[in-house]
Amino acid sequence: MNRTGEQNKMKWSYQIGSIRGIPIRLHVTFLLILIFFIGGFAVNDITIEKYGIIIGFDGLDASTVVKYLFSMVTAVLFFSTLLFHELSHSIVAQGYGIKIKSITLFIIGGVAQMEDIPKEPRMEAWISVAGPAFSLAIGIITYTIYDFFGQVSSEGGALENGVLIMLGIIAFYNIVLGIFNLIPAFPMDGGRIFRALLATRISYISATRKAVAIGKGMAFMMGIVGLLTLPDGIWFILIAFFIYYGAAGEGEATTISITLEGLKVRDLMTGLPDVVHALPDWTLNQLIDVMFKTKHMGYPVQKSPASPVLGVITFADVRRTPEQRGVIRVSDVMTSEIISIEAEADAFDAFKLIASEGVGRLIVMDHGRMTGIVSRTDLLRSVQFRGAYRGDSV
């Protein structure tokens, strides 16, 4: 499943390499699901009678160590196919000129973070269908190999049967993954394909809202099923949360992207000389007095309006210093790392940067000099105004 737009930066994730210039990251929660799958494969022996597939190595005539070794290899291979599912989205997107920020594997699945939302229906459809197509292809190929060499039997040795079980598991889960992702509800790939089809007839935002509504409805039904089938239904509940919040986040990101389309940072920023700056040698009490007067929550720190920006100080920085505010200087608690953006950058790029860095404002730069500040409030106010003015015509 692919996700578009810049999401909040994934904490507790670590880069393990890159493919085609795309950083590959593992979230710490991925280790939980990996361990769960390894343990599940080792102790289960579930047979899907119609296709002769055995899910698990518990019935394998081998030692416990061998069973766990087969389970580890199978789990790693399966999650490798999940990675290539996401990579399929990314390769097609790159073919359309869309930059991929990263691919991250976590407890529920994988996320390919794209720099831009593919708003052209044909483009989005092809990008979205690539992942399920890869999963189904892998599933069909591995099942064909499994069926060709014969199903697991008592006459086969531990190695032969172990490899066959492995092939069957990879085939089964990839086919399930491919079909599941084709469900026509956000944030599944099928939801994106559904939106692409709707967008050929109605506005992009309206198409998104319909796909989001279906996604939320499906999440609600899955949550009910999960509650009624506890404890086994816990996975339905987790997936329901993933679908619901994924659909809501996708709808919000799409609305903001479309609404801010065509706007530059310079159109929304507070420019010089209206930017209020804080002096580095002010005490925090002096800064608080200025905050009450100007009603701002953050300030660039400069020695003069024309001097370089030394850092940024916010109300949150002041709150973290509850004592001796009459003695502690602004320069002692300010953030020296300056997160900036160019004045000619797209407004949506500013929104993505604010969201990813978890800050309330950006310093706007032009050829290395500060020309203004753009805040989250500036962006959201513009979204609200333009959304009310433009309606669903976009």
**Order of H and E elements:** EEEHEEHEEHHHHHHEHEEHHEHEEH
Could you say how many structural domains there are in total? 2
Please provide the count of β strands: 13
Largest pleated sheet: 5 strands, mixed
Class derived from helix and strand content: alpha/beta
Q: Residue ranges: pLDDT <50 for 5 or more in a row?
A: 1-9
Oligomeric state of this protein? single chain
Q: Report the end-to-end length measured between terminal Cα atoms.
A: 25 Å
Characteristic terms for this protein:
394 residues, alpha/beta, CBS-domain, 2 domains, five-stranded mixed sheet, four-stranded mixed sheet, 13 helices, 54% helix, 15% strand, elongated, disordered N terminus
Structure description:
The protein is α/β, with parallel strands linked by helices and 394 residues long. It has 13 helices and 13 strands. The strands form 4 sheets. A 5-stranded mixed beta sheet has the order 1-7-6-3-2. A 4-stranded mixed beta sheet has the order 8-13-12-11. Strands 4-5 form a two-stranded antiparallel ribbon. A hairpin with a 4-residue loop joins strand 6 and strand 7. Helix 3 runs antiparallel to helix 4 (158-181) and helix 5 (189-198) runs antiparallel to helix 6 (204-228). The longest helix is centred in the N-terminal third of the chain and has 32 residues, at 64-95. It is elongated and about 85 Å long.
